[in-house]
Give the backbone structure.
Amino acid sequence: MTTVMIVKISKHKMLFSLLLIVLVISIALFLYFFLGRSNETVLIEARGIIELPVPITRGTMSVEEAILKRRSIRNFLNKPLSLEDVSQLLWAAQGITDPTRGLRAAPSAGATYPLEVYVVVGKNCVTGLSEGLYHYKPDRHVLEHLLEEDLRSSLADAALGQSSIREAPISIIVVAIYERTTSRYGERGIRYVHMEAGHVGQNIYLQAVARGLGTVVIGAFEDSRVQKVLKLPEDQHPLYIIPVGYPAG
Ligand SMILES: Cc1cc2nc3c(=O)[nH]c(=O)nc-3n(C[C@H](O)[C@H](O)[C@H](O)COP(=O)(O)O)c2cc1C
């Protein structure tokens, strides 16, 4: 009789323990997948962070064809770009291509990475992005929304009124923080930084061609005016303005 009761009690205990374990696991999973994610999303939105689509690494045009077809394009259609286009152009400029070592699409002297990349987006110019200034964060492949107005005209004015900047749906701005490279290489680091901007510009040219887009690298502008329009920190020096859009004609 007592043996039967003991067996019954321990059976109940086992069942209760099992249910408890299942309950604890379910609560843990719920917290991890739902609360954890939604907290992250709320945080991301609050800081104005836009996640970019995962870049493709296999396109339809060969690198040879892209080199052959590359030309500077200064007139653009009034046609919006996709978020995939923006993602791809930024990835080609400074995207992480070796996540384990943090290496990027363009070479950098001693991997010091002195360049920052910003994007000026016009009103209704990129599907899924409102107008303004964005900062590209290569580590997470995200954009941070910094300013909320269409800056294309002011940026064009700071660049001798070049209409390509006024017309293009977006302009990518490549900015240098010299200290990152000169702290290791001294004065010689300055030339390294400029060479690196060239690599970034060429990557953007070729990526644009491969997606049926057009671009031109622009070096003629007033540095201090560009800094003012983009509200850049003092140690960030603009090197290139790179308008991108669908070629007109
Ligand atoms: C450092 C640099 C600065 C440039 N600045 C400008 C510029 O301010 N405005 C412009 O329309 N094109 C600019 N360009 C583009 C050149 O005018 C263009 O590359 C050249 O005319 C050759 O044409 P292609 O690029 O079609 O081969 C610049 C190019 C380089 C490399």
